[in-house]
Amino acid sequence: MESQAFLEIADVALRGGIIIVSSDYVRFEIERILEPLKKKDVKGFERTLSMANVTSSEQIIALARMLSAECGLNSLDALHVSAACVGDVDFLLTSDDEVLGRGVCVEEFAAEKGYRLKVRNPVNYVKERQR
């Protein structure tokens, strides 16, 4: 199900229907993948599909600290969310249960700070787009 959602999202992105934004933190996590073939594939997807990159900044780090304290996210997850906010994205797509479980808190925090970020599982995101 998730792989089908990924393919649908990739197809829409390649046709210009959505813009996929990456970040230095996504690239950091890709580098941590131990399995060489998986790392190569994920790097290729990231390079092919992302049209923009959010670079690390003091603003992101400060926002991540507040987000971690407010919503209980671990440091790296808070950096991902903060980069998405600063990158002015509409949706953070993740399969991370910790982030998804704190999605309401993350969305409320983002809204309070003036961001429009929504947190979705890729499968649910595709279902929402089809409605």
Number of domains: 1
Look at the structure and give the CATH class. Alpha Beta
Tell me about the biggest sheet? 2 strands, parallel
Order of helices and strands: HEHHEHHEHHEH
> Strand fraction band?
5-15%
Rg over CA atoms, rounded to whole Å, is: 14 Å
Which range best describes the helical content: under 10%, 10-25%, 25-40%, 40-55%, 55-70% or over 70%? 55-70%
Shape: globular
| Euclidean distance between termini CA atoms | 18 Å
In CATH, the topology is named Rossmann fold
Low-confidence stretches: none
- The structural class is mainly alpha
CATH architectural category: 3-Layer(aba) Sandwich
Count every beta strand, where a strand is a DSSP E run of 2 or more residues: 4
Tell me the strand order in the biggest sheet.
1-2
Instruction: Give the overall average pLDDT.
Output: 95
Number of helices: 8
What does this structure look like?
The protein has 131 residues and is mainly alpha-helical. It has a single domain, classed as Rossmann fold (3-Layer(aba) Sandwich), CATH 3.40.50. 65% of the residues lie in helices and 11% in strands. It contains eight helices and four strands. It has helices at residues 2-14, 24-31, 36-49, 58-71, 75-86, 97-101, 103-112, 122-130, and strands spanning 20-23, 50-54, 91-93, 118-120. It has a two-stranded parallel ribbon with strand order 1-2. A two-stranded parallel ribbon has the order 3-4. It is globular. The chain starts with a helix and ends with a helix.
